[in-house]
Amino acid sequence: MPNVSLSFSLPITPDLIHGAVELERTEVGLLPHRLPAWARAQYPDAQLALAEAQPSGVRLVFRTRASTVELDTLPTKRRYGAMAPRPDGIYDLLVDGELTQQASAPGGKIMDIDVLSGAAKVQPGDVQRLRFAGLPPGDKTIEIWLPHDETTELVALHADAPVAPLAALGQRRWLHHGSSISQGSNATNPTGIWPAVAARLAGVDLLNLGFGGNALLDPFTARTIRNLPADVISLKLGINLVNTDAMRLRAFGPAVHGFLDTIREGHPTTPLLVISPTWCPIHETTPGPTMFDGKALEKGTLLFRALGNDAERRQGKLTLGVIREQLQKIVQQRAPADANIHYLDGSALYGAEGNARYPLPDELHPEAEAHRLIGERFSALAFRAGAFGKGAA
């Protein structure tokens, strides 16, 4: 570990961390999780474990007069065979809500992943130190947003002035659940993922339960949401059910109702917004599953392809168009008995025209500008225009 050079040093403690559901004590520090241990135990899957331990939306928050802050962290980098190395995760530092500096940790652990089999092996690494200098004078709120796509163990903070945790942000809590798009796939930095963009514009406290490949109506996810405090809740559902070809139309409706019923056990009147999928040309009318393009992988390029065919819709296979239609019907069916449930068509956030402006670079996930567009539109439609219902903003 690097030598301490600043006057005030403290280990990372839970009261400094916002946006995590649970914290695991490791050999070096604290590992943020976005699912509790009991939920992780119900489906010990490598992809889910990777996604929920990537700290999308997780940040350190504290008050200080410091002009220099250093963070000791142990990241885990992912390496996918012959593909080009992934860029280092970015840490965003905000001063009183404004993005001021960015930094990356070049070292740490390395996880080698076989793209086709999913098998992974982790090589050990050293704790890294990030330095943020030249901060503005005076007392201020500092937020350090962790990389949304890089597992991060938090070790210690160092500063040239005392640091005080900020337990209450004074904002309404927005709990959001979704897929890799909600987690931030293809966004370049943690405050650039669309839920973070929307949260900043709406002035709400984000708890992001976007899990790459794992927005699958899992009962343990519904129970997790049921048990967490929230002032407003949104659920972006559909794309992963098509990707995995996880269920047919017969199972889909009852599964959505059951997911919503469970959440309502803990949040009977909380404004609840159901969001259908954003635009994805390969799956608008074509069912899954979704697979890697093998020829592109051989050239070191990541592209996705739909393996279903349009005729399979007659067998009950799901497409994004079918899911949008069904989710709208489900919300309409529940609305007479639930005045606080609402529906938002995901193509209003990113539709055919958005795709024409900002095409999906891998045929599945939006890039940075599209994340910004989705976040801005969601803030306008869900918070300012009231898709969450009265009192949501």
Would you kindly provide a written description of the structure presented here, covering whatever features stand out?
The protein is α+β, with helices and mostly antiparallel strands and 393 residues long. The chain contains eleven helices and 21 strands. Strands 1, 6, 9, 10, 11 and 13 form a six-stranded mixed β-sheet that branches. Strands 2, 5, 7, 8, 12 and 14 form a six-stranded antiparallel β-sheet that branches. Strand 9 and strand 10 form a beta hairpin. Helix 4 runs parallel beside helix 11 and helix 5 packs parallel to helix 7. The longest helix has 18 residues. The model has no long low-confidence stretch (mean pLDDT 93).
Q: What's the gist of this structure?
A:
The protein is of the alpha+beta class and 393 residues long.
Low-confidence parts: none
Class computed from helices, strands and strand pairing: alpha+beta
**Percent helix among the residues?**
25-40%
Query: What fraction of the residues are assigned to beta strands by DSSP?
Result: 25-35%
Taking the sheet with the most strands, its summary is: 6 strands, mixed
Q: How far do the termini sit from each other?
A: 44 Å
Mean pLDDT: 93
Radius of gyration: 21 Å
The coarse silhouette is globular
Number of strands: 21
Helix tally?
11
